[in-house]
Structure formats: C-alpha cells, structure tokens
Amino acid sequence: MPRIRLQNITKQFAKGSRAVDRLNLVIEDSDFVSLLGPSGCGKTTTLRMIAGLETPTEGEIFFDDKCVFSAEKGINISPDKRNVGFLFQNYALWPHMTVRRNIAFGLENMKWEKGKIESRVQEICETMRIAEYIDRYPAELSGGQQQRVAIARTLAPNPRVLLMDEPLSNLDAKLRNDMRAELKRLHLTTGATFIYVTHDQSEAMTLSSKICLMKQGVLQQYCPPLTLYGSPRNLFCADFMGNPTMNFLPCEAQEGKDGITLTTGVFRLRFNPNTPLRLEGKKQLVLGIRPEFVKIVEEEGIESRVVSSLPTGMDTVLALEAGGITLSAVAFGSVDYAMDSAVRFGFEGDRYLLFDAETTEQLAMGSLAIE
Amino acid sequence: MNKKWNRVKTFLSKPYNILLILLLVTLTYLVVLPLFSIIRDTFIVHASEKSRIKQAVGSFTLYHWIRAFNSSFSKILIWEPLWHSVYTSVLACVVAILIGGGFAWLVTRTDLLWKNGLTKLFIFPYIMPSWTLALAWRNFFKNAVVGGAPGIFTALTGITIPNWFAYGPFPIIITTGLHYAPFAYILIGGVLRNMDANLEEAAIILQTTKARMFTRITIPMVMPAVMSTIILVFSSAMSSFAVPQFLGLPVRYYVLTTEMYSTIQGTNPGVGYIIAILMIVISVGIMMVNQHMIGTRKSYATVTGKSANISLFHLKGARLPVSTIICALVLCMSLIPMISFVLQSLILTDGNYSLSNMTLDFWIGLSKGGNDYQDKAGILRNADVWKTLFNSLRLSVTCALGAGTLGFLAGYAIVRRRGSLISRTVENLTFIPYLIPSMAFSAIYLSMFSQQRAFIPSLYGTFAILALIGTIKYLPMASRSGVNSMLQLSPEIEEAGVIMGVPWIRRMTQIIIPIEKSTIVSGYLLPFVSCMRELSLFVILVTANNRVLTTLLFFYDEKGWAQYGNAINLLIIFIVLLVNFVVEKLTGASIEKGVGGK
Amino acid sequence: MKKILALALACVMLLALAACAFADADTATFEELLEAGKANGNKLTLYSTHSVSVAAIDAFANKYGIDIELVEGTQIGDNNQITQVATEVSSGVSGADIIFIQDGARTVSELVEEGYVYNWYNQEILDKVGDDCEPLLVWDYCNKVFIYNADYVEDGEITNIWYCTDPQYAATLQMKDPEKEGVNMNFLVMLTSEENSAALEEAYKAYYGKDIELDADCPNAGYQFIKMMYQNGMLCGDSDGNIAKAIGNPEQEAPTKWSALITLNKYVKNLKDSTVKPGSQTLNYVKEMQPVAGFIYPIYGLITANADNPELAKAFLVWLFTEDGWFGDGETTQRDGSVYVGMTGRFGDYSGNQAIPVAEGDSPVAEWKQVLIQEDPIFAAENRADVEDFIKMIK
Fold first, then answer.
1. CATH superfamily, region A245-370
2. Which one of C54, C81, C87 would you mutate to disrupt binding with B, by most B Cβ within 10 Å of its Cβ?
3. d(CA A277, CA A279)
4. Which residues in chain A have their CB less than 8 angstroms from residue B220's CB?
C-alpha cells in the first residue's frame, strides 16, 4: 500500500481564484485521512487532483516514490493508471446497467477472467449486503442501497487507494450513522488507504485517523482528530471543530509572576500556561473554552442565569449569561434547568486555550482560575 | 332528484367545470367528428371521380378501398409512397442524429474553436421554414435535365450534377436530416451538458478505454435523447410535404404526402383520404412505441447532476481542421442558403451569375407585360404579395391568440380537475391534433367543412377555416405548456383569492395571468412562428382569395417563377427571424426552449 | 355495360348542346351589360389560369372606372381551380363571377355537367367568334408544339411524332408532367381516339418502315405511343418555362438533342434574338410533323352559377374579344401603374375572335388547327381516367 505525497500543489481555475494554494501533505500507508473544511475550501479539488481527474497548476504528486504528476516535468499519469478507487457524492451509478453490470464493468476493463469476475461480484455484493438486488437497475434501489452498490463497484478491483467525495451526504441521518460504521470496518478489512472528503466535522472526527482541515485552499492543520479538537492551531480550527462550538472570549492580557491575568468584561481570570509563554507585549488575546470545560458547580464559581437549556437525554446544552457574557456549557446526564434559574460555574483542568486576536494563532494551552 | 340537481348546481358553480365542458364539446366537434367525416369520405364518389367511377356524385362506393389495397394500382398509390416515406424518414433520422449529435459532442466535450458562433448558427435551420434547405439545394444543384438552367454549383464549377444527387431520395434525406439536426443537437447537447460528469469519471477511474467509454457509457446515456429525436424527426419527416414536393417530384419520387396532394387535387380524392387515414394510423403507432419506451425500467430521471468541470477532449493537431470543417458545414446550413436565395432573386437569365445579369426588378420593378420574363411587378410593389403578406400575418396572429388562449385555459381547467375523467378526456383531446400529420389534418378539414354542417355554413375558401385549423393544430403546443406551468403553480395561490371572495374573472386577470405571463407569451410565440412558416397544413385548404405567403411561394414555384419565388422565400425567412428575435428580446422565450432544450 | 351507358349519356349531352347551338345568344349589348353590372355593385371576381386575363381585368376596371379596390383577379392552376369552383358553388360560398379555365375534360364533367358554371355569349361575341361559342366559349387558344435546341437538332430532322419513341432520342424529350397539367393529359387522351390512333398507326409505318405491333396492355396505337414515349425516358418538368430554359441551355456538357412539347409562348420568351429580353437560347419549333405537330387547347371563359355580378362579368367577356381587350389601347394602366399590353407580341396565344391578328411571325390559328390535335372535351372527359391509370401503370 502506498504513501501519497503532495508537494506544493496549487490549482488555479480560469477565473483566477485559487482553489488550492501550495498544499503539502503526506498520507501514510493505510491511513484514513479526512479532507475537511467548509464548502469551497478546495477539499474536493484536492481529492480529484489525487485521483487525476483534475490537473494541478503547480506542484508534484507522488505515490510512494513514483511521481504521478509533476507540473515542472510535465508528468501526468491518467486516472486509470493510478490504481485508485473513487466514490462519488451522488454515487455515479450508470443508470442503464444493472447492479451486476455496474460492478463487473470495471473488472472487465481490467481484463479479469470471466469466472473471476463473477465470483468477485458475488463476493463483494455479499460483503456489502446487496446480493439480493444484483439484477436490479439503480433507479429501482433506495439511496442507501445505491450507496452500497457504489461502494461495491469501487472496491471490486481492490484499489490500493480509496478516494471518497462526501459519500454519505445524500443519506438520511440514521443511514449515515450505519454507513460510517461500515466504512470504518471496511478500512480495517481492506487495509487500503482511505482519503475522505467531508464538510461534517463530526464525521471527520469519528472516522479518520488523521484530519486535514482546509480553508480557502490553504491547509490549516493536519493531525489526528483528537489533537485537532483539543489543540487547534488557530481560531478557525478551534471554531470549526466541535458542536456546540467553542466559547471565545476576547480579553486583555497582563503578564504576572504566576501566570497571565485576563480581563474580559467584569471578570478577571488567571491563566496558567502548561508550557512557558512570553507574550512579548501582546495585549489583545482570545480565550477559548470548550463548552464541556465550563463546569457547573454547587458552590463558589461565578453565578449566572440560564438563558436556554436544551436537554438531549444524554447531556444538556446550556446557554449561561453572566456579567454581559454568554457562554455555552454542557452538563452531562439527564438533567434539565429551568429558564432564568441561577447556576454557578467554574473551571477545571488544563485544556483552556489562548489565541492571539491579531494573527488568530494559538499561543498556549493551560489552566484557568477565577481571580 | 333534488340531490342530483344540487350536485349539478355545485358542479356548474366551478368555472373550471364549465370550461371543461365547453372544451369537451368544442374539441369533440373540431377533432373527433372530422375523423368520422374523413372515413365517410373514403366511401363516396366525389365530383372529380365521376368519369372514373361512373356513379352519381355522393353515392356509396367501395372503389377507393379496392383501388388502394386490392388492385394493380395498390403498389403505385400506397405501397411505393409508403416505402419512400419510411425510407427517407429513417435515413433523415440517421443524418440528423449523426450531424446534430456529433456537433453536440464536439461542442460539449472537445476544445472545438469558435463554439459560441457555431452553436448560434447551427440552430438557424430549425427556426427557418422546413423547405429552406430543399430550395437552397435546388438552387445549387439543380441540373439542366429536369429543372431549367443548371444551378449555382454547375455555373461555378462546370461540373454537371447527376440526377440522383439533384433530385429524389438522396437530397430529401440530406436536407430533411440537416433541417432537424439542430433538434438533435439541442436534445443530445442538453443531455451531454447536464449529464453528471461523474458517470464518465467513474468509468475513467475503472480503467475504461476511450472507445468503450463512448459506446458503453456516453452513447447509452444519451440514448433517451436520441430516441426522442428519432421519434420527432421521423414523424416530422413522414408528414413533411414541401421537401419531397420540391425535390422528389421532378424525378417522380412520390412519398405519402405528395401522393395524397396529387390525388386530392387530381381526379381521385377518395384515395387521398385513405392515405390520410393511413398516415394517422402510422403516427399513432409511433406515439405508442414512444409511450412504451418511456415506461421501461431503466429510468434516466437521475441523469442530471452537478456538472463539475468536465475535462475537455483535446483535438490537438486536428483542432483547426475539424473546426474549419464544422464551420463550413454550419455555414452551408445557415448562411449559404440565404445567399443562394438572394442570388436567385436577382438574376435575369437562369444559370448566369455575372453582375451584368443581375437586377433588382424582381423586388422593386414594374411589370413589363405578359411577354417578358418579368410579367409581374416586383414583390415589394406587387399588390398580390402585400395582400398575401397581410393575410399571413392576420392568420398567424389569429392562430396564436386562439391556440395560446385556448391552451392556457385548457391547462388551467385540466390541472384544477386533475384525475377526473373529464379532465383526462379533455387533455387527450387537446393532444390528438399533434398525432395527425398536418396534411392529413387539412384533408380532414377539407372533407368536413366544405359542406354545410348543421348551423355552420360551408367554410371552404374562407379565412375562418384556416384560422380554425391553425388554432386546433397548434393547440397541443400551447396546452402542454399551459398544463406544465399550471402544475407548478400551487392551487393555494388561487384559493387565497377564493377565501377573500374574489370572483373568478378577477382571480384570472389579477392573480393567475400575471403570474403565468411568460408562459402565456411563449404559448403564443410558438404557434405564431409555426403558422408563419406552415405550408402543408394550408396548401390544400387555401383558395386563391385566401393565400398565405407560404402557399404563394409554392404556387410561384409550381409556375416556375424562380426569381419571384426566391424573393418571397427570403421575405418569409426575414419575418420569421424578425419575430423570433423580437419576442426573444422582449420575453426571453425562444424556439430553442420550446422544443425542450435547456 | 357501364361504358356503353356512359357513351350514351355523352351522346345525349352532345345532342343537347348541339340542339341549342347559337339559338340562345343573349341580345344584351355591351353597354347594357356594363350599366347593369355597375348598378349591381362594382365587385367582380375572376379566377384564371392565364396571367393576361388577370392583367386584363385590372385594365378593364381602370378603363371603365369600376372601383378598382373591389376587383379581384387571381391566377390559379387548373386542378386547383376546378376543385375550388366546384366546392364554392356547390356549398354556396361566394367566389368567382367569371372563370377562365383550361382542361376541357374536367371542366365539362365536374363544372358544366354539375351546373356550377355555364356557357354564355351574346350577339356581339357570336359575330366575332362564331363556331367557337359552343359547346364552351373559347377566349384563347394556346398551342404546345415540339420545340428543340437548334444547336444540336438540325432543322428538318424531326418530322414524325414517333421520334419521341426512338432510342436515338432517349431521354431527350421533355414535357410538363401530364399528371400536373390537365391539358397535357387531355392531349395524350386525344391520341387514343379512333381517328388519331389510326393516324398514329400510319405514321409508325412511315417512321419505322413496318406495321405497328401492339403490346397486350395497349388497346390501340395511341396507347402504344404513350407507353413507348414514357419508356423512352421522357422527362416530366415542372413548368414549361423551366423546360424551355433547360432544353435551350447554351452551355451543355454533352451536346444533347433536346426537344420538348411546350407552349410556343415560352419558346419566344427564351429565344436568344428575341425582341423581348433576355432569353439566350437557340431554339426552333416544328410546324410540319406526321401525323400531328402537337396540340392546341382552348381556354374557356365561363360564368359561375352563383356569380354575384354576372352582368359585369359578361361585359368583361365581351370586351375581351375586342382588339382593346386583346392588345390594350396603349394607355389604360393596371393597378401597379404599368400600361396594359395584353397579348401584344405574344406567340402561342390566339383569340377566339379570329379577326384579331396573331403576333408577327406566328401563324394564324386556322393554320395551327390543321396540324395540331384539338381537344374534344367530351371524349377527353370520358377516357381520362383510363389513360391516367394506364400511365400510372407503365411508369
């Protein structure tokens, strides 16, 4: 299984906008990498460039050490020679062929023996649990079944690399969850490299071994999902990941002996960085607090008013107002709070983040206390 | 009893019910009854058949049926023209699809040069009257053998054109095929343009070769569009009259329509009516095949998707040559015919294209008396031509208003009562005229309305019969668009008016009509343009006092007055293009959209 | 049986027509008719197969101050005209007052016999036209003769009508399609009459030097001639004018002995040294030919049964037989402003009034009648369907 390396990949469309800007990325063998970002961030374009469906304007792409694309050397290996599988958002099943013909078509192209094709089609259909629909036309299948057929068609030739372009976005919520589990299982059993495009951060979180978060064609952060969640590189990453989203409190900083004092509204907080931090005169910062780190406490802490309470049964998302600042918080367990009732909250642990308001870069992670 | 009466009252209190009943009665009278009338006509002796059948005019006879199907004349009267019709229509389909589909592929899938201009010009023949290319062909390739002086091609090159190239099936197939090629382009190009590029990309990834991709993916995907093109081109070609009349007759190559025309105008109209019935049967058959095919399992409803940037097929070294060839072809279909009409309308002596042989007299000159070439005034100062032009415009406006209004009301009433028997019946009735080939339809009206029927006097030779047949024949176009647009308009919009007690007329004029404005306008445009260039629908109904431009052209052509004929042809084309252009600018509706392109 | 019956019917018709011959010449004069016509409203509608009569009605209206807006003259081909007149009159639709029509066969059977149009003349016409007032009043005689390309066919080369069947002239003869133009069909029908078929038989012997042998499907020499002519590749053109241009085309790839049976009028129009510009062709025509040199057919002037203004129509008819009506008086103009010249200088048109001179260089109608077949409308009507069917079969 190959290692895929993108070097300085740039895609410029005719109208002048840069879909992808000098992207460097290494995808290790057997990784499950998600390309994540809001729409128009260049993730689909990146995927299509890896497949060879789109031609980059600049840069090089390597599969292992073999160069499949190089703008400088004029190399451009066509998609059919890259031995990749591609799963399209709308499945792209050929409507005039039965399920069987859809799956067998690619194998025929690869000059498989007839008997081998038949047994492979049968096998993959059983794996994907679509064997009973094998002689139907795509139009006669439900969305989920079409999805399975599309996956079966893509997997049938045993591709070394499987590229997926938002394959679950056309499914309803329940099916989507089922298919996620299915995909994860497939990743294990096939051992292939999966590259997966999505705009849904929770999908990326749950599936991938690594997430590549992009914004307007530029790579923001490339790391395992929990790292991205816990230690986002900048405000965009922090904001994009997680639901409910992170609380951002703009504040003024003052370096002291035992940490940094942050002033936001009527509150003064003390921030203790986990690793030494020098502000070098920076004053305008942003404090990032994940909702789950706004702890509801019985005593002490800050008193606040419940603005809204949205229980799901497993947890309850709260909006709390204190001193003109609204924070979202998560209370675990089956609890509900009356509107306008008073609760107290505090801080705990060392996973609070400090960002530079100007550059939006993360400065430090640390613990927080009320002064 | 009272309950029943109340039910009737409730039924009639709804304006759309009254509309449906009125439509039902009118259409039964104008569409269904004539079908019976024409059947009756195949069993009686007509005036011109007296010396042939030797029975009193109007008496019962089986002569026509026996002669048509069980005599030594069957082959000449029925089977040969039928075979010619089928043969030329099938091959015209092939030409239309190869040229139109090929062009669609080149435009949507390759880096062909000058795409913008080429696509605009390519649509041209479809806007023009159907015989345009046939007349141009004759102007270019006529040979001295059958049609006067040789054409432009021989004059330029000195090469004599053989008969098979100048007349008969070959040019009929080519000109008909080219005329409908734009249709194939619009339909197939629409599919190619909107087709999900992923379908092809999925195949690329699965290592499909170019050839296999084309035959197994691209072609099957455009198949439904190809099938609709075939159905349309085939039935249009089957019912086309002008082209075989201009190009087939000189070598006695008869198709059903021309045979029908010659029998109805000649001494055996009974057989002509039988041919009309035969054509209706064929046309209904085609529609049934079409219906059957639509109902198959392979649904293509999901064909369209988000169209990514499809990578274009690079023609590389062939780019310039291919583009040049296509450009030449497109010019041959669009601009060069016009040039030939201009030339032919200017020259004094046929076959001589030198400047000294040219004159504007056929356009603006005075008549020089019966012994001169120029025995009529130039068409722009010829009172007959002006009268005819005015009549054409009057007729087109009447038909457009008639068909458009009726179609809109029918659409409204049909949709409001959708699912009921009466609504279905009316919907089907409005569609029947579409199934009846133009010339067969006019044969029906000739047989029906040339006598007094109940309180309706004979309409023969009147403006009314032309207006009536035009309105009914173009009704399907308008009612289709009426139904479709009303389906998209939610009934709540009108119901809101009902609740506030707004009367029906006000609901229509203040709510529905303003909303549906653009559909209504295109419902008027299509009949207008069609009527302006219609020949086969009117040619056997028009009398000397009620000529329209197209039949005047036909008459001049029959008489061999080439210069006047070409000038009139240009006049017709000019008007059609002008109207099309103006309406397109004003409303955004266009012929292209009308035929289902996107 | 049917045939005999029909023949008997035709004889009765003929007798009836003959019996009333000349007895019912109207006594009304031109002036009376004109006055009565003007009093009866000014509208006059004419259908005609001949362009000059259309021009003439224009001139007539101008000359006598009839409200020109209301006068309509329309040129229509014979087939259309018969259908139109029959339908209009039978269903009571107001159409033409007067028609000028060729194709006697269909005119007699479909219009006269059915009572849709009638024959009319007054003493003034009778004095000028004489015998040609009956059975139908002849306004104009037209002739169609064999015209050839004088560059490739020598003068005097064509002398016998059977040349049309000679392989030497295969595919060189042209004629307007008889199925499209009734007079041409009538000519072929006339060839099958007893008299003409006998003459054809004789001419056959003179041409081929042996007695004619009839094919099984040919009842007489007339049919045999038609069959052989068609099978010798006769070309059916769409108009006499185009045929004249085609056969006279000066720049021929392969010199061909073109000839055609078309109106003498088209011959003049296309002649290279014609006084009327701009023909360019070397054409000539045959006047002496065994047994006939072509045919001559009348254009009849008839009044419709439902004419709105028969008086004015009749006045117009009377005027047409005067020299002014035929040639124009040199000053009366037409609607478009050009001076009406009528038949001036026109070859191949001869007034029913034989006192009117023919165009310079043309022969008088009496002379033509000697060498051409004349149309007998009753015989033609009777046998038309047979010959049409025969031609359908042999093509």
1. Nucleic acid-binding proteins (2.40.50.140)
2. C87
3. 6
4. 94, 96
Are A90 and B300 a contacting pair at CB < 8 A?
no
At B549, which helix (H) or strand (E)?
helix B549-559
For the segment C229-241, the average pLDDT, to the nearest whole number, is: 84
Flag whether pLDDT at C219 surpasses 60. yes
**Unique residue bearing structure tokens 């289709």:** B480
Region for B409 from its dihedrals, namely left if φ exceeds 0, alpha if ψ lies in -120 to 50, beta otherwise? alpha
Helix (H) or strand (E) holding A254: strand A247-256
Which pLDDT value is given to residue C179? 82
The yes or no reply on domain A4-239 and CATH 3.40.50.300 is yes
At B303 the pLDDT is: 43
- Which pLDDT does position C271 carry in this prediction? 63
- CA B306, CA A166: separation in Å to the nearest integer? 14
Per-residue model confidence as pLDDT tens digits over C341-363 = 888 878 888 998 888 888 878 88
Q: What is the pLDDT of residue A286?
A: 94
CA atoms in the 13 A half-sphere facing the CB of C114: 26
Those residues of chain B that have pLDDT short of 70 are: 1, 144-149, 294-311, 350-351, 367-375, 454, 587-598
| Positions of CATH 2.40.50.140 in chain A | 245-370
- What is the Cα–Cα distance from B373 to B351, expressed in whole angstroms? 15
Where chain A has pLDDT below 70, the residues are 1
B210 touches chain A (CB under 8 A): no
Nearest-Cα residue of chain A relative to residue B207: A80
Residue C246 has pLDDT above 90, yes or no: no
Report the alpha-carbon distance of residue B523 to residue B482 in Å, rounded.
7
Q: What is the CATH number of domain C143-296+382-394?
A: 3.40.190.10
* pTM listed for this prediction: 0.80
pLDDT digits (tens, 9 = 90+) for C254-289: 677 888 898 888 776 666 544 444 445 678 888 888
| CATH homologous superfamily for the domain C2-140+297-363 | Periplasmic binding protein-like II (3.40.190.10)
Q: Give the angle subtended at the CA of C308 by the CAs of C304 and C312, to the nearest 5°.
A: 85
In this prediction, residue B301 carries a pLDDT of 43
Which of chain B's residues have a Cβ under 8 Å away from the Cβ of A138?
A: 302
User: What does the pLDDT read at residue B372?
Assistant: 59
Compute the half-sphere exposure of residue C103: CA atoms within 13 Å on the CB side of its CA: 29
Q: What's the pLDDT score for residue A22? A: 92
Q: What average pLDDT does the structure give for chain C?
A: 82
| Mean pLDDT estimate for chain B | 83
Q: Collect all residues with Cβ–Cβ distance below 8 Å to B248 and sequence separation of at least 6.
A: B84, B167, B168, B169, B172, B254, B255, B258
CA distances from B555 to B300, B564, B568, C76, C239 (A): 47, 11, 11, 8, 11
Contacts of B566 (CB under 8 A, 6+ apart): B135, B139, B340, B341, B342, B344, B345
**Domains of chain B (ranges, CATH numbers):** 15-47+379-594 (1.10.3720.10), 62-335 (1.10.3720.10)
Distance from A94 to chain B by nearest Cα, in Å?
A: 6
Q: Using a CB-CB distance cutoff of 8 angstroms, which residues of chain B are in contact with residue A89? A: 198
- Which residue of chain B has the CA closest to A93? B199
| Cβ atoms B532, B460 nearer than 8 A | no
Cis before residue C278, ω within 30 degrees of 0? yes
Residue B527 preceded by cis peptide, ω within 30: no
* Partners of residue B206 in chain A, C-beta under 8 Å: 80, 105-106, 109-110, 153, 157
pLDDT for residue B92: 95
d(CA C117, CA B507) in angstroms, rounded, equals: 56
- Kindly report the nearest CA distance between residue A139 and chain B, in angstroms: 6
B352, amino acid identity: N
